[in-house]
Each structure stands twice: as structure tokens, then as C-alpha cells.
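Contributing new records

If you add data, match the layout below exactly. Sequence lines come first and carry their own label; structure lines follow with theirs. Keep one chain per record. Anything else will be rejected by the validation script.
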Amino acid sequence: RALGLRQAAGLDQLRKSPPSLEPMSLPVLHLSGTPYQQGLRHGQVLQERIEHNLALYLERFQREGRLARPELLRRAARYLAALQGQSAEYFENLRGVAQGSGCDLVQLAALNLRYELLYYQFTQIALADGCTALALTPEVTANKHLLLAQNWDWIPGVQGALLHTCEPGGLETLSFSEAGIVGGKIGLNSA
């Protein structure tokens, strides 16, 4: 049975790079300081990727979510006000991303609140969603280590980055995120 899982997961193929696949390169940002300083650096370094993602999502909100831009921005502004009152650090990080990238804060709020905004729309219209996570226990892996994996197949074309953060209290994170998104989508922390 363990051999079947290994074969089904293609673990033996992980050691080989298929000739048809191009190597992927993601920028790695090392972020430290206050939330605003982290956001500022994120915005400065990933400006082009953020602009790309904003254009992609703004179009997707309209096309797939059937959410006209004025309504999208109205909703995002309401969420942004709530965010400022409920999570000042997140708000400050987002404000830094806006300042560093030169992008509009409310549009960046829509990008960061995409799930909240789109999931409501999903209740009105059917939209596809999904990522897959898996774990292989040490009993079924060749190196006897626990292996964790998650794919990210949300939207083709979205540009990402790896974020390594060092918080003032000592917590470190390493995560994958979309450019312009505060914090990580998928990652690990030192806690």
C-alpha cells in the first residue's frame, strides 16, 4: 500500500525535472521592522508584480464575480475601515504596501480582501475554487520524514513571492504570497 501511495503521488519523480517544465523563479523578500516598514519594502520591491495582480483581480472581480468596480471599491472601503479598527498592524502593513508601490489603498484592500468579496459573490453565482493539500507520514516516505505539500491553483497568471519576515518579538515566518497581499498564504513559522 505504501508503494502505491508513493507511485500515485509521483514521489520518485520529484528527484527528476521533466524536460518540458521551465524553472520557476520567485523573488524572496526579507522583511523586518514595523508593519508599515515591512509593507513599504514589499510595495517597493514588488511594485510591477502588484500592479499586474491588481489589474488581473480587478478584471476578475468584474468578469467572474460580476462585481462592478464602483461597488467593489465601496465594499472594499467598508472592509478597510473595519480592518483599521480591528487589526491596526495589518492595516499599517497594507498602508505601507500602498505607499511603496504607489497603488491605491482601497484597490489594495480589495486585493487583500478578495476572498471575503468573492465568496459572497459565490453565494450569488457559481465559481470554481480550490487548492489541494496533502501529507505523507514517515511510514510511507523513502526518507522517513513527514512530507507536507499544497498546490496553489487559484488563478493562472497571478504573480507571487516568498516572504521571510522577522517580527520584533522574534517570530519568523517563511511563506508564499501573492504580490500585494499582506502576510503569507501558505507557509511556516518559528513558533
